[in-house]
Amino acid sequence: MLNKVKLTEAEMREFAEVFAYYDYGDKEIGMVPYYPGYPDRTSLVNYLVAMIKTANEYDGIYATSENREGIIILTDTTHPYPGIAMFKMVWRMARALGFRNFSDIVKKFQAGGASLEKTYRDKKKQFVQIELLAVKKEYQGKGFMRPLVETAFEVADEAGLPVIVSTDAKLKKEKYEHIGMKHVGTRTLGEKSFMYDLVREK
């Protein structure tokens, strides 16, 4: 299992930018255009930094090595963040986008139907969720995604839980499938915008 790390402010922003500037190709647009200011992605980067910062404060980040080629942020419903952490994260995210824009983004995520996370929560099923996975540009395509995802598997296996993830890119979906996750649903959020739900059962 990979080790948990604490990121610097610069590292948090670097990983947020890696995630925000993903190339979807011609057939998809992901969720990126729904964030305010597009094609400028500053607000999206700030939104992601808000999430990463909270995970950083509450020990939710694993890294591939001391070189931090890649990171993964996990949440575990059997060991949830304290209420104050969730409040801080939502507050930071809303401030990053503007409160009205934040509300609109939440509605767009819900437009394609219930997420796998909501389905599991409604059924009172416990799970480990991959909240964010990012590999620095110079290390992409070199096998760093696998140990990150396998760490999620190890964390979940210790508790006897499934791992779930949702991604807005078909190529990311295929990479998760290659590592051992199963695609269980696709939600259409808009033209050329999709969310793919995957699970790896315990």
Provide structural commentary.
- About 45% of the residues lie in helices and about 20% in strands.
- Strands 1-2-3-4-5-7-6 form a 7-stranded mixed β-sheet, sandwiched between helices.
- It is built from 7 helices and 7 strands.
- Helix 1 packs across helix 2.
- The protein has a single domain, classed as Aminopeptidase.
- It is of the alpha+beta class.
- The protein is globular.
- Helix 6 links the parallel strand 4 and strand 5.
Gyration radius, in Å: 16 Å
Strand order of the largest sheet: 1-2-3-4-5-7-6
State the helical fraction. Answer: 40-55%
Query: What is the count of structural domains?
Result: 1
- The CATH superfamily appears as Gcn5-related N-acetyltransferase (GNAT)
Going by helix content, strand content and strand pairing, the class is alpha+beta
- The CATH architecture comes to 3-Layer(aba) Sandwich
Protein name: N-acetyltransferase domain-containing protein
InterPro entries: Acyl_CoA_acyltransferase, GNAT_dom
GO molecular function: acyltransferase activity, transferring groups other than amino-acyl groups
Pfam family, one: Acetyltransf_1
Quick structural summary:
The protein is α+β, with helices and mostly antiparallel strands and 202 residues long.
List keywords for this structure.
single chain; alpha+beta; Aminopeptidase; globular; Acyl_CoA_acyltransferase
